[in-house]
Structures are given as C-alpha cells and as structure tokens.
Specification:
By secondary structure, this protein is α/β, with parallel strands linked by helices. It has two domains: 310 residues, Up-down Bundle (ABC transporter transmembrane region fold); 244 residues, P-loop containing nucleotide triphosphate hydrolases (Rossmann fold). It has 20 helices and twelve strands. The chain has a six-stranded mixed β-sheet. Helix 16 links the parallel strand 9 and strand 10. It starts with 11 loop residues before the first helix and ends with a helix.
C-alpha cells in the first residue's frame, strides 16, 4: 500500500485537516462523561434544576461542535477518497492501454475489470477510513484510560486489565480471518469471469440450451465465494460476544469496586457513571479498530493486485519517436527466419517463417484452426514481437518504427468485429479523426456497407449500441472493414472478417479490394478457399509453418494441405475452375 501512497499527495490538506477535525470530535466525546458526572454529583444530588439545565446546554454545545467537526471530516475524507480513486483508476486504465496482447492475455479481461472496479473501490474505502478513524479510534482508547486514571487511579486498574483482554480477543479473531480476505478477491475474479462469459455469450448458451449447466457453474463459483465469506463471518461473529462479555465483566468490576469506594466517600456516583461511559467508549473504539484491520487487510490485498498490473511492463516497447525513412526498392513486408512463442516455455506458434511480399500485392492466408494465420499477420503491426528473427516493413525492422508511424501504415480488421458505442461516423474515424464524409462514404462503398448505411434514418449519425449489437454479423464485419479502409493505409490486414458475408457480397468485397491492391498491400486471412483463390499469392499455414506458397492453380498441383482444404469445401470441378 505504501507504493500507492503517492496518489495522496494531491490531497495533503484533506489528509491532514480531516484527522484534526476528527480529533476535535474525540476530545469533546471524552469531555462528555465528565460533564455528566458533574451534572449528577451537583445538579441531581442537590436538586439544582438551573445547574442541570446549564450542564445540559454544555452537553448540547459539545454535541453540536462535535457533529460539525465530524461532518467536516467526512466531507474532506469523501473528497480525498473519491479523488484518489479517480486518479488511481485513470492511471491504471492508462497503464493497461500500454500493455501488449501478451500481457493482456496473461491477466485476462475479467481479472482486469475486477481490479479496475472492486479493488480500487476497496482502496477508496481505505483512504476514507484512514482520514476518519485511524487517529480517532486509538486516541479514544488511550484518552478514555487517561481520563479514568484522572478520576480515580485505583479504579482505573480495571481498565488496564480489560483493555489487554479486549485487544487479545481482537488479535485472536483477526489473525485467523485476515488470510481469507485475500482468497476472496480471487474468488471474485472467478465469479466475474463466469458472469462475463455468460453475458457476452448469451446467444451461444441459449443456442445449445446450456442455461442449466451454466447456472450450476455460476452457482458453484458463488457458493465457493459464499463459503469463504461465511467462514470469515463466523470468525468475526465470535468477536462481538467475546468483547461484550469482557466489557460486562469490566462494568461489573467498576460497579462493585466503585460502589465500595462511593460508600467510603472516595468516589462519587457521577464519577462511577463516567467510568461506565469510558468503558463503553473503549469497547466501541476497539471494535472500530477491528473493522479497520479488516478494511486495511482487504485494501492491502487489493493494492498488491493493482501493483501487480503497474509492475507489469509492456513487452512492446517503442525504440524511438523519430520517423523512419523506408528503404527504396525493398519488399513491402518481409519475414526473415521468424519464430514466435506466446510465452516463455510455450511451444512455437510460428516456426522459421520466411517470405517477401512486394508492394501492391493481394496476399491470401489460409489454413486450419490453430495453424498460425492470425499470429502471422499480428507480427506486421507489432501486436506481438517475434521471439527470433525479423519482420521488415519497407526494408526496416518493425521494432525500429515509432508505433504511431507503424500503425499509420497498417490498417487491420481483427477477428471479433468489435464496434464501440457511439455513432457510425465516430467508429469510422478511429484511424483518421479528421476524415471527411466523402472519405467515409468511399470506405463504406469499398466495404460493401454503403447500401445498408444509406437506408438508415440517420445514416452516418446512426447510433451504434455496445459491441454493435444493433447490427447483424455481416453488417458489423463490413463496418469494421470500412473503419480500417479510412485513411488509405499502405498495408491492409483482414483477419477472417468476411465469414458472415454471403457469397455475392464476399465476391463484391474481393473485387473492390483488388482495386485497392493497386495502391496498398492487402493480406486476407480466411478459411474459405473462395475468398483467397483470386489472390496474387496464397500462403498455406499448418502448425505454425508456411507449407505452401503460390497461386490457386500452383497450390492445387503442389500442396497436399491446400488440396485437402479445397476438397473439403468444393468438388474437383469447382476447385479447378
């Protein structure tokens, strides 16, 4: 947690002033039993109504000033905690956006969402409690003991016996429950994962009628979380009975020995009442301390999870911000002895890949599921870095490009067809924020999306719901293709982005991309032979290797893997046509 204390620097005033106001409230709270004792011993004992009213006024004044101090502290604590939470969430979100695919794959989306929400909320609570109670609770315990000693030193020995007993009870209970709070955070990740899978995959769940099975899986995760929470609850539930038993023993001792001292004239009745009030204050303060231990334990676990993200450095590091000059006459894209594995010790996802792609080529990439097609094209915009070898763009290693220049050169449509909430215009301008409407319509025309966008009432200003759920799969694919076309990138990568298109639309799209290929190099990743058969060159992938390279006709004669793919999708007559 110390490492996250830097976020408190902006809120020094609140962190200092808040406890001061809370300290004022605690001082007045310690004075109240003395005023009550005075009211009983003088006003009640002598029947002086005026004195009782006077002391009552003092109590009211103490309450009003204490309330004002408490509200001021609450306000300062709220501003500081919410401010720290906002700043922490903003910086964490920024850091997550610097991470590469490799690190995002490591953490997983549900875990990052939990850290961005639940863990940071826990830190906000810790900051608020730090300002409001960390000073007040110990001060009340120590202050109550001191005030009791000031009234009667001998009777205050009861306090010196009770406080260690209460502290021991707190320690025993908390030492056994604290480890479970760290475990609960991991259980929450599991619940978040299952929830996200079922909400995003609701159609798949219903299509396979897996509602009951998924409900059982969700229930299992919730029961696992609940069992841990119940175990902590049982341990914590023991605390209150123990605390009240010890406190009641203390009160009995105070009444017993206090009564004896009242009889001999060493103590007044009001002072005995003050002792009882101080005993109550000590109990309440110690219970608050116990709650603080729980809160800060949870916060420490959350801080560790947040720091784990901050400590993770992106594997994709920008070497320079100086624009790179392309090498004249070099191939547009070159792979030189490229090997790649997703993490240390994993099997190679790409093995000894070598190829040169001239500018203006239309390249098809085909292969079975898991053959390495998407991994191959992900190397070009440097979504992953190679484990060995080089990926060259215009004769320059992609690692030597400033990321902004590299991404300006490459337009990519990844798998998933994700659109963001907003308007069609806002989604299309992701690559080029100042693109004109003419450029947007040209991209929509080439992506075969012009017809259905024109039919929408608001056209380019039509709303896009979260994830583009108000469009069909084919419409989303065409919009994501149009988004990549805006700005006319030198390299266009289409990763299986026409799977939801009908054959007529797919053919029209390939025709428009053929025109684009005169000015740009296009990579079309697909499992459809019909999508890639017209390409200038087709790369056939199998187990991370390029096992075939050539035109459709050449591969039909020389590549068994390509022949097998063709025969699985069309008859011999269609394949040779």
């Amino acid at each position: 947690m110390k490492r996250l204390a830097r976020f408190l620097k902006k809120y020094r005033f609140q962190v200092i002033a808040g406890p001061v106001f809370k300290l004022i409230e605690a001082i007045f709270e310690l004075i109240v039993p003395l005023v009550m004792a005075d009211m009983i011993d003088v006003g009640v004992a002598q029947g002086d109504i005026g004195y009782i009213w006077q002391r009552g006024g003092v109590l009211l004044l103490l309450g009003v000033v204490g309330l004002a101090s408490s509200l001021t502290c609450q306000t300062l604590a709220s501003r500081a905690s919410q401010g720290v939470g906002t700043d922490l969430r903003r910086e964490l979100f920024h850091h997550i956006n610097t991470l590469s695919y490799r690190e995002l794959d490591h953490f997983g989306t549900p875990s990052l969402i939990t850290r961005m929400t639940g863990d940071i909320n826990q830190m906000q609570t810790a900051v608020a409690m730090l300002i409001r109670l960390v000073v007040r609770a110990p001060f009340l315990v120590i202050g109550a003991v001191v005030m009791a000693m000031r009234i009667d030193l001998q009777l205050s020995l009861v306090f010196l016996a009770i406080v260690p007993l209460l502290s021991l009870a707190l320690y025993v209970v908390m030492s056994r429950s604290v480890p479970f709070y760290k475990l609960i955070q991991r259980k929450l990740d599991r619940v978040s994962l299952i929830t996200r899978e079922n909400l995003s995959g609701a159609r798949v769940v219903r299509a396979f009628r897996k509602q009951e099975e998924e409900e059982r899986r969700f229930e299992g995760a919730c029961v696992d979380l609940a069992e841990n929470a119940i175990h902590i609850g049982k341990l914590s539930a023991v605390l209150s009975p123990f605390s009240f038993v010890i406190m009641n023993i203390g009160m009995i001792a105070i009444l017993w020995f206090g009564g004896i001292r009242v009889n001999v004239g060493s103590l007044t009745q009001g002072e005995v009442v003050a002792f009882i009030n101080y005993m109550t204050q000590i109990l309440i303060a110690l219970v608050v301390v116990a709650n603080l231990v729980v809160i800060f334990t949870k916060a420490a676990a959350s801080a560790a999870r947040i720091n784990e993200v901050f400590d993770t450095k992106p594997s994709i590091v920008e070497q320079t911000q100086v624009p790179v000059t392309p090498v004249a006459g070099a191939a547009k894209v070159s792979f030189c002895n490229v090997n790649f594995r997703y993490y240390q010790g994993a099997a190679l996802a790409l093995k000894d890949v070598n190829m040169d792609v001239p500018a203006g080529s239309l390249i098809g990439v085909i292969g079975g599921t898991g053959s390495g097609k998407s991994t191959l094209v992900s190397m070009i915009p440097r979504l992953y870095d190679v484990s060995d070898g080089q990926v060259m763009l215009d004769g320059v290693d992609v690692r030597n490009y400033p990321l902004s220049q590299l991404h300006d050169k490459v337009g990519m449509v990844p798998q998933g067809n994700l659109l963001f909430s907003g308007t069609i215009r806002e989604n299309l301008r992701w690559r080029k924020p100042n693109a004109t409407d003419e450029e947007l319509w040209a991209a929509l025309k080439d992506a075969q999306a012009e017809s259905f966008v024109t039919a929408l009432p608001d056209r380019l200003d039509s709303r896009v719901e979260q994830g583009g759920k108000n469009f069909s799969g084919g419409q989303k694919q065409r919009l994501t293709i149009a988004r990549a076309l805006v700005g006319e990138p030198g390299i266009l990568i289409l990763d299986d982005c026409s799977s939801a298109l009908d054959y007529a639309t797919d053919a029209a799209l390939r025709k428009s991309l053929r025109r684009r290929a005169e000015h740009a190099t296009v990579f079309m990743v697909s499992q459809r032979v019909s999508t890639v058969r017209g390409c200038d060159r087709i790369l056939v992938m199998e187990d991370g290797e390029i096992v075939g390279s050539g035109t459709h006709a050449q591969l039909l004669e020389s590549c068994p893997t390509y022949q097998e793919i063709c025969m699985s999708q069309m008859n011999a007559e269609e394949a040779g046509a």
